[in-house]
Amino acid sequence: MNASTAYEQVSPAVPSWLNKGDNAWQMTASTLVALQSMPGLVILYASIVKKKWAVNSAFMALYAFAAVLICWVLLGYRMAFGDELLPFWGKGAPALGQKYLLTRARVPESTHTLEDGTRETVEPWYPMASLVYFQFTFAAITLILLAGSVLGRMNIKAWMAFVPLWLIFSYTVGAFSLWGGGFLYHWGVIDYSGGYVIHLSSGIAGLTAAYWVGPRLKSDRERFPPNNVLLMLAGAGLLWMGWSGFNGGAPYAANIDASIAVLNTNVCAATSLLVWTSLDVVYFGKPSVIGAVQGMMTGLVCITPGAGLVQSWAAIVMGILSGSIPWVSMMILHKKSALLQKVDDTLGVFHTHAVAGLLGGLLTGLLAEPELCDLILPVNTRGAFYGGSGGVQFLKQVVAALFVIGWNVVSTTIILLFIRLFIPLRMPEEQLAIGDDAVHGEEAYALWGDGEKYDPTRHGRNTLYGEETAQSPYVNGARGVTINL
């Protein structure tokens, strides 16, 4: 027996069930997903909005990240992944005890197929602490994505109350039902890494919240240019690169399914970006960097529910559809829909997350490949494209989507109406007119002298040598919505 073997047998820091490689990858994936929110979406939100809302938008994301973590370890994690209370909800309890966090991670019963064709039950080879933090990063980014629908007018105090309430009464329900051992999980619905739990939920809840909070000022809706396009790209880049942890960490192991998930994620995102950009060129005559980021986002969202379950040629097909169908819903149907015109979804979260997430969930029901499903899913599963019981799987995906949509509309509505009894959901008109300086007493950029007032004759934003410069159609609203991510 060598020294290292003896150490592993006697040291409590290296129990016999711990796989250091799996644990290292899970913590790495957790960090990648956390970086998508903090600083990824903080930077993206701060730069993609009008200058006067940069601080407020960044702060909403920053606050949500911190508030969700504390609520998660106090109550939320075990409501989403603990013992069953109801078929769609777990028993809430703290996830803070040392004995709990240092024990081997528990997940709903899962099996995979061995080379000889037999199936065995598998569990993660790392402690609960790794799993609790990994799942927190998903909960946090869901709230931050939802925030994109209400930027530029939601009362910050109402947002501070909304975050913990929505986490507890909406997010945990979807997470337990689909991931934590709830009725949709046991029914065999597929949501590999959050197409429904995260993206469909945030898109539908965001649209609902935008309806109840009300619109931005008319001047903000008509003209809402990003204050820093290059910084916006930095935030978008963190999102894209972080998505390898988002989908690569879903198998709870550094296994071959994680590898295919990472490859498919990037293939789909790249395809979607190219398709969206091509449609912009064909329809509007010029490419847009904001449009390219939108295409990237819809591709990442669409592949998420099936990243480790579809073949790579299918990831290209999903990228083609995610770069075109949400483009049509945003650029064409948005203009023709009275409801979408009425509801002020600031960053178009409905299109980029609800539409793309629903599309991905349905396409997974069509394209999930049986052998890949056997690597990770608890029951024999296949998409409709592969015959057999695939048609039933597609119908399950439809039913699950309807449940997620219905629950988020109802729960978000009740939460906001409750908050409205005590706190106005919308900022006062004077704060809406001024922005960050009135809401926080802070401004994002010192572009002119301290205390100097904005003078359009001296500080014109869109002039070059005295002549107005052309703007992207995404900026001036000609494409149906202002900025959408």
From TrEMBL:
Q: Which GO terms describe its biological process?
A: ammonium transmembrane transport
Q: Which PROSITE patterns match?
A: AMMONIUM_TRANSP
Q: Which residues form a coiled coil?
A: none
Locations listed in the record:
Cell membrane
* Identification of the protein by name: Ammonium transporter
Q: Which organism is it from?
A: Populus trichocarpa
Q: Which residues cross the membrane?
A: 24-46, 58-80, 132-151, 163-184, 196-214, 226-246, 258-277, 289-307, 313-334, 346-368, 398-423
Its domain of life reads Eukaryota
* GO MF terms held by the record: ammonium channel activity
Ammonium transporter AmtB-like domain segment(s): 24-445
Please give the InterPro entries that the UniProt record associates with this protein.
Ammonium/urea_transptr, Ammonium_transpt, Ammonium_transpt_CS, NH4_transpt_AmtB-like_dom, RhesusRHD
Q: Does the keyword Membrane apply?
A: yes
Member of which family? Belongs to the ammonia transporter channel (TC 1.A.11.2) family.
